[in-house]
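Hello,

Our lab assistant flagged a job as stuck in the queue for most of the afternoon. It eventually completed. Since we weren't sure the result was trustworthy after the delay, we are filing this so someone can double-check. Below is the sequence as submitted and the structure that was eventually returned. Let us know if re-running is recommended.
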Amino acid sequence: MTDENEGNSGQIPTNLRLLFLLEEVAKVGVPVTPATVNEVMGLPKPTIHRLFATAEAEGFLQRDIDGRSYSPGRRMRLLATNTLSSEHLRTVRLAVLKALAIKVGETCNLAIPERDGMFYLDRVETHWPLRIQLPVGTQVPFHCTASGKMYLSTLRHDYLDRFLRNYTLNKQTEKTITNPDELRQELELTRNRGYAADDQEFMEGMTAIAVPITDDRGRLLSTLSIHAPELRHDLPELTEFLDPLQDAAAELAAIVSR
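-- returned structure --
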């Protein structure tokens, strides 16, 4: 008997099932079991497990530590990154970044979370000759950068606890927070005030602030940050740019959600 004749599977065309499955996994935002996804899709049990196995074998999904749940794999994450980088989106996105860079007079960065750190997706450089070189494609640590701390502050508390138990908080500068309890307090502060700060924690002589870019469910998609040499702007001075930074983040979120 074919899948089309089983249960409710005829409601979803065969050639769209895998796409719908990946969409549902992405929507949930946490590792999810085939049974949970199938509450929405309504496919026969053998079919849903076969689809998950195919997606895992091709690298679109990866099995979580419990052996039953799945989350986006490398190819699915690359697909999301490439979608965000598509030419039409990028043209408009860069226009927003350039307008922000002109307004604040400092380098602006768009970063997304990857497995081992934050990945710089886009940036617009300041016109100043004194600037920090962190080109597109650079990956920076989570724990000592404004973008990374912004991302960590959005994790569920149980996920954050596991992260802090297992992630090495390498000391980048004298100001890097390497104590898990102190970092947890910093992330709670970040969560409450709505922005993250890097006061020479990643690179000596560099300050930065970051705000979230969220989807229509309030989940973090990426971060928008500005950084500057401390000689030009210390951290309190940099926070004076929060309003234009948050306005630009809202505009970028609207672009992605359209």
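-- support follow-up --
The delay was a queue issue, not a problem with the job. The result is valid. The first helix runs from residue 17 to 28. Residues 1-10 have pLDDT under 50 and may be disordered.
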